[in-house]
Amino acid sequence: QPIFLKNYLPPAFLVQQVHLNFLLDSTQTRVISRLELERNPASTQANLPLELDGQNLKIINLQLNGQCLTEADYQLTEQQLILPQVPDSFVLEIEVEIDPLNNTALEGLYQSSGNFCTQCEAEGFRRITFYPDRPDILSKFTTRIEADKSRFPVLLSNGNLIAQGDLDNGKHFAEWQDPFPKPAYLFALVAGNLHAVKDSFTTCSGRQVALELWVEEQNLHKCEHALRSLKAAMQWDEENYGREYDLDIYMIVAVDDFNMGAMENKGLNVFNSACVLAEPKSETDAAFNRVESVVAHEYFHNWSGNRVTCRDWFQLSLKEGFTVLRDQQFSADMNSAAVERIQQVSMLRTAQFAEDAGPTAHPVRPESYIEINNFYTLTIYEKGAEVVRMLSELLGKETFRKGADLYFARFDGQAVTVDDFVACMAEVSGLDLSQFMLWYSQAGTPEVAASGVYNPTEKTYTLTLKQRTPATPGQPVKQPLLIPIKMGLVGAAGVNIPMEVNGEFWSTERVVQLKEAEQSFTFHHLEAEPVPSLLRGFSAPVKLSFDYSREQLAFLMTNDSDGFNRWDAGQRLALLAIQSLVAQQQAGETLELDPALTSAYEKLLKAPVSDPAILAEMLLLPSEAYLAEQYEQVDIDAIHQASEFARTSLAKALYAEFLRLYQDHHSSADWSPEASAVAARRLKNVCLTWLVATEKPEALQLAEQQFKQANNMTDQLAALTCLAHAKDASVGKEALEAFVKQWSQDALVMDSWFSVQASRPYPDALDKVKTLQAHSAFSMKNPNKVRALISAFVNQNRVNFHAKDASGYQFLADKVIELNQLNPQIASRLVIPLTRFKRMDKVRQNLMKIELERIKQEKLSADLFEVIEKALQ
Ligand code: ARG
Ligand code: ZN
After folding, report:
1. Whether the Cβ atoms of residue 716 and residue 705 lie closer than 8 Å to each other
2. Whether the predicted pLDDT of 667 surpasses 90
3. Average pLDDT estimate for 627-656
4. The predicted structure's pLDDT at residue 582
5. Chain Cα centroid distance, residue 521
């Protein structure tokens, strides 16, 4: 039952207007819709039947132009309502009944903490009423909501409030009208006992926009940061993309039960509370950063997504990739650009590269899917953003902006494709981007092997770049891509040498376009062998290899003018050192850490601190997940042993330096949101982690002290993690108890409390996780809790998830089976680590497959079916 991109057909009918009337009730909500339909003049076939999507809907009444329809007039399937004979233009009235209270899938209309809310992207609207639920049908929506006034005093939907009032029996109503035609996936409704923090923004043309953030009463003190971020994003989009907001009101609602981060419904965003609420005592700096970026992301969708939307779901990255790039650019402008880039790339290289290497690998524009919810992936979002970023590198900032302007102007109010977007970029730049389109159609992570030869007599340096993309499921053969490689040649003392290639002068930095499978560039007039700095700023989402010596890496670490590449040189050096430890471990030798790494760290620690935020990043070793990515055959245990050995060796060797740095950046001053204060906290807490890695009593004491004295969650949680992750489980006991006592009423903080325990890197973690499932704050129906406890164990506790006794696999399979019933979207995400068995040893491969087979015995949702099927193929 897969759906194919190549089978796309324009819709047979268009919807001019939709009137919705909701009579809200927990288990028996009535939805009465009135659709003004007409045949699509652009439809390619005549006299097609009307097909409306609908799932789990109970039909109460159907009328066509005022005439009641009987069962003889239509066909009803599990998925659709089909009317074979309809006029060319008509009014259809549909009354259905739905059950929001028992909607645990959290798609369509459901209840969260007693309040009603909706999630319609991608195909949730069909769980609310019968409708042509596809993004290329844009219609004007009017929504009337009727509910009990005392329990649901606040009634919200898209657009502007046009009427409200009281009704009999303690009920009231509100009517909202959205002037902008939109696809059904952008519809939203919220009703409940909510409280607003209000603000306003004046747009560049002088219009006043009311801003409202709706939350439960106990969260009113957590709204300020999101509102500040929203205003900053609105201004940023005016200045950087010329995009002005278009309604008189912009509302955000925070809900606790939400499958994803947030949703950009027109004028009424619905947010996972974890992505909108933030207050220093209870949320970390990382949470503040996430709120800023998600608030901006959803706001930016108003243009890249809502005003210009997707023709079909294969084009999902058209809005997501572009919008992620926009939110990344915004975050880079608001914070340290280098640190933002480092964090994005770390995530991409571990998680997205792993996706590309696994059974669910897919192109940025997939060719087919069974369940579209499975395609809200790192590939669509993050790699999609990298693809648009490459366009901006290739075109240059100004031309890229012209292309974006053209795209918004030309396609405003339309549902379009990735080709339309790229065509705008080609048009404004005059570039031929046909080869570039392969980035959208080819899955897998391209590998670029670079090598250099210096010829001292000719004084030339020849750089050779070779590219290949490994096969992915369904795509055995790959073509060479157009890969922009930003580079420079670094000479003695760290100067960027002006480059001259065959009489052409390139200046000191250049974006080289690699188009062939293999290309060479010869640089002239070089007095000595330069050190190439390649893929600066991570200019393309590829794996770049170059046979750097340890000396060259240490040199680039301090001398590269590109901040990202300085960090990456350090990562490469650490990688070499840990990989040789892995080899020693596998050979049964005594472990010995490469002294080059220790001295590079020492140099970092002893140098004057120019940028504490970057230093903090440079002091982090590559994660075990990233290490695993480097191997065709992953030895989970050896990687863990090697990492731990590197960590404790460095910590012991450089204890005094880490302690000094910790003390220098530890302040008892009041919490501040300033970038400098954030950086200091980050650096200090990275140092604390290093100190406790030694397990020295005085280090643990320091953590205890910090835990007790902390006036903010960043410091408190960092200290708690250090204590709870000490080898001796009793070390963290007291702090964990104090923490739960202090925060048991705060759902978001409790998520951290679960995660800290689930990620404890010792074999006792799984039993703890199992026990914690019975905790009163835990619920399998709440996705944040599932992520905090179960995903945290599976994804942040690799050695123990992969325990050789299969206990981790069995546990995960049990949870997936449970969630298959409750929430298919969450189940199908949770199972992914179990599908990544290809690079494991034979024993683990078999154990993992046994659990997948066990899951397969169940009556699976489409979501899980698709993933399991691909994994076992
Ligand atoms: N469009 C939303 C965002 O990226 C995500 C919605 C995902 N929904 C889903 N059911 N997969 O901001
Ligand atoms: Zn998005």
Report:
1. no
2. no
3. 98
4. 98
5. 37
Q: Would you say residue 870 has pLDDT above 90?
A: yes
Is residue 668 over pLDDT 90?
no
Question: How many angstroms separate the most distant Cα atoms in the chain?
Answer: 95
Q: Which ligand is nearest to the CA of 327?
A: 2
507 sits in the region (left: phi over 0; alpha: psi -120 to 50; else beta) called: left
Cβ neighbours of residue 623 closer than 8 Å, sequence gap 6 or more? 346, 350
Read off the pLDDT of residues 139-161 as tens digits, 9 standing for 90 and up. Answer: 999 999 999 999 999 999 999 99
326 φ, ψ (degrees, to nearest 5):
-60, -40
Please name the helix (run of DSSP H) or strand (run of DSSP E) that holds residue 561, with its range, or none. Answer: none
| pLDDT tens per residue, range 778-834 | 999 999 999 999 999 999 999 999 999 999 999 999 999 999 999 999 999 999 999
Q: Is residue 193 over pLDDT 90?
A: yes
The answer to whether the peptide bond before residue 122 is cis (omega within 30 degrees of 0) is: yes
Per-position DSSP letters for 424-451, written without gaps between them: HHHHHH----TGGGHHHH--S--EEEEE
Q: How do beta strands 139-148 and 13-23 pair?
A: parallel
Q: What is the pLDDT of residue 493?
A: 87
- Other CB atoms within 10 A of residue 40 CB: 15
What was the pLDDT predicted at 45?
87
Helix (H, G, I), strand (E, B) or coil at 154: strand
Q: Hey, which residues does 461 pair with through a beta bridge?
A: 454, 523
Measure Cα distances from 549 to 521, 572, 594 in Å.
21, 10, 13
- Our mutation pick for probing the ligand 1 site, out of 328, 371, 376, counting the most ligand atoms within 8 A of Cβ, is 376
Number of Cβ within 10 Å of residue 854's Cβ equals 15
Phi and psi for 773 in degrees, rounded to 5?
Answer: -60, -25
Q: What angle do CA 622, 275, 740 make, to 5 degrees?
A: 80
Q: What is the CA radius of gyration of the chain?
A: 28
User: What are residue 654's phi and psi, to 5 degrees?
Assistant: -120, 25
Q: 543-600 pLDDT, tens per residue?
A: 999 999 999 999 999 999 999 999 999 999 999 999 999 999 999 999 999 999 999 9
Q: Which of 107, 298, 355, 866 is catalytic?
A: 298
Angle formed by the axes of helices 595-606 and 655-665, nearest 10°: 30
Own/partner long-range contacts of 790-795 (Cβ < 8 Å, ≥24 apart): 790/758, 790/815, 790/830, 791/829, 791/830, 792/754, 792/755, 792/758, 792/759, 793/758, 793/759, 793/765, 793/766, 793/769, 794/830, 794/833, 795/625, 795/833
* Closest atom, ligand 1, to C-alpha of 376: 11
Which residue's entry shows tokens 């489409």? Answer: 862
Beta-carbon count within 10 A of 198 CB: 12
Percentage above 90 pLDDT, the chain:
99
Compute the mean pLDDT over every residue in the chain, rounded to the nearest whole number: 98
**How many other CB atoms are there within 10 angstroms of residue 249's CB atom?**
19
- Span 449-471, mean pLDDT? 98
Give distance in angstroms: CA of 323 to centre of ligand 2: 6
Give the CA distances from residue 684 to residues 56, 348, 615, 756, 792, in Å, rounded to whole numbers and listed in that order. Answer: 53, 26, 11, 19, 24
Instruction: Reply yes or no on whether 629 is catalytic.
Output: no
Residue 269 confidence class, pLDDT cut points 50, 70, 90: very high
Single-letter amino acid, residue 52: L
| 603 pLDDT more than 90 | yes
Who lines ligand 1 at CB under 6 A?
121-122, 259-260, 262-264, 297-298, 320, 373, 376
170 by Cβ neighbours in 10 Å (0-12 / 13-18 / 19+) ranks as: exposed
Selection from 293, 274, 405 nearest residue 339 by Cα? 293
CA distances from 121 to 9, 269, 365, 642 (A): 20, 12, 18, 44
Q: Given the CA of residue 107, which atom of ligand 1 is nearest to it? A: 10
